[in-house]
């Protein structure tokens, strides 16, 4: 065999070896990918079972099927639009974290700055201006643009006053009272100084404290902190955010990780005391800012399906049981007792905890939010206080 033939034979031999190695590596890689996919699918199934949504708190269909919405010609359209909006990626806003993106629907309209439109607002220079801050209840979960708390305030004030009235809706999903006060501060910095600033809430302070076990912390604190504190590297971040990675991370959170001291602003000797003290400190801060800029301040502690003496419908009884997973009942009762006591001594603070006690029909839609009829009653109570403007 001459030289060229030997070289050709060696080349063919190396080629066969390469193909054998390639097939083996490809088969190993394919089996690894299939195994990882199976692990991820199993982890996803475990997470979905563990985090099974509540019948009302997380279900658009269940809320849309409530008798109140079935009777509204806008009901189905609203919940379809709301689901579309909830599936949109939220936008980051400095200091307050997040706000909804712009949205233009038949029943829901959100501006580019994240504020929801208040129909009928006349926001020209010299208008009597009211800012309303709070969470998703102020924003108007369950209500079209025309039936939010700010919308009913707009209609009521416009009927009472001779000049233009501008009620602006600064509510945002999951905002705690600290975020509300910061957003008020940002508006004042930008020259958006209202005549009145109303802060309606309390439920999100309780839910965030239930979630984290700490006061003075916004919602989803651990997840957001993890984005800054996680190990560097895109691949590691990608793996950590898979369903399998999240299950491992959740397991480690309860065993190996030590909680850090982040109880900023906590002054009470119990969690309920700390949540109440943080909230009342925000009342004081907003009042101080209001005095400096000539803004009347009003804080309203929310009504809740977990407090008060409202007779429940069958659906509301289920909602109350579901809410216990979001807001600890003992925490809610302890904080409300402190807020009710403080409201007796603070003109800027009112307690709306029992506002629905005489309502026998269904008013709650998921344990945290109410129908437009509930919004109208809340707005009427706020209007009664505003009429007493000194």
What characteristics describe this protein?
390 residues; alpha/beta; Rossmann fold; 2 domains; five-stranded parallel β-sheet; two-stranded antiparallel sheet; 15 helices; 51% helix; 9% strand; elongated
Chart the SSEs and their pairings:
Blueprint: H1 3-50, H2 60-64, H3 67-70, H4 75-86, E1 91-93, E2 97-99, E3 103-104, E4 109-110, E5 128-134, H5 136-139, H6 149-160, E6 165-169, H7 177-189, E7 196-201, H8 203-212, H9 221-229, H10 234-240, H11 243-253, H12 271-293, E8 296-301, H13 314-323, H14 329-343, E9 349-351, H15 372-387
Parallel strand pairs: 5-6, 5-7, 7-8, 8-9
Antiparallel strand pairs: 1-2, 3-4
Helix pairs in contact: 6-15, 7-12, 12-14
Report what the structure shows.
The chain has 390 residues and is of the alpha/beta class. The chain has two domains: 1-52; 60-217 and 262-387, SGNH hydrolase (Rossmann fold). Helix content is 51%, strand content 9%. It has a five-stranded parallel β-sheet with strand order 6-5-7-8-9, sandwiched between helices. A two-stranded antiparallel ribbon has the order 1-2. It has a two-stranded antiparallel sheet with strand order 3-4.
């Amino acid at each position: 065999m001459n030289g060229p033939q030997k070289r050709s034979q060696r080349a063919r031999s190396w080629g066969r070896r390469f193909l054998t190695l390639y097939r083996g590596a490809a088969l190993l890689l394919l089996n690894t990918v299939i195994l990882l996919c199976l692990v991820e699918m199993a982890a996803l199934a475990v997470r979905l079972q563990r985090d099974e949504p509540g019948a009302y708190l997380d279900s658009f269909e269940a809320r849309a099927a409530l008798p109140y919405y079935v009777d509204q010609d806008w009901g189905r359209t609203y919940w379809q639009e709301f689901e579309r909006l909830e599936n949109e990626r939220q936008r980051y806003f400095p200091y307050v974290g997040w706000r909804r993106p712009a949205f233009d629907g038949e029943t829901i309209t959100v501006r580019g700055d994240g504020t929801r439109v208040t129909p009928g607002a006349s926001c020209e220079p010299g208008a009597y201006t009211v800012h309303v801050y709070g969470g998703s209840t102020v924003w108007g979960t369950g209500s079209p643009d025309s039936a939010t708390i700010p919308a009913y305030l707009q209609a009521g004030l416009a009927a009472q006053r001779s000049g233009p009235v501008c009620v602006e809706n600064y509510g945002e999903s999951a905002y705690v009272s600290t975020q509300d006060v910061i957003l008020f501060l940002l508006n004042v910095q930008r020259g958006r100084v209202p005549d009145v600033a109303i802060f309606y809430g309390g439920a999100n302070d309780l839910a965030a404290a239930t979630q984290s076990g700490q006061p003075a912390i916004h919602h989803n604190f651990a997840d957001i902190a993890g984005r800054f504190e996680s190990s560097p590297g895109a691949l590691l971040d990608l793996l950590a955010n898979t369903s399998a990675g999240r299950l491992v991370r959740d397991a480690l959170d309860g065993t190996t990780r030590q909680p850090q001291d982040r109880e900023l602003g906590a002054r009470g000797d119990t969690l309920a005391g700390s949540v109440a003290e943080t909230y009342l400190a925000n009342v004081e801060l907003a009042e101080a800012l209001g005095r400096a800029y000539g803004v009347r301040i009003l804080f309203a502690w929310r009504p809740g399906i977990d407090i008060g003496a409202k007779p429940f419908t069958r659906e509301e009884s289920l909602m109350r049981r579901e809410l216990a997973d979001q807001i600890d009942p003992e925490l809610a009762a302890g904080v409300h007792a402190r807020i009710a006591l403080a409201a007796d001594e603070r003109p800027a603070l009112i307690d709306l905890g029992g506002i629905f006690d005489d309502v026998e029909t269904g008013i709650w839609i998921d344990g945290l939010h109410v129908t437009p009829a509930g919004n109208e009653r809340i707005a009427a109570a706020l209007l009664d206080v505003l009429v007493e403007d000194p």
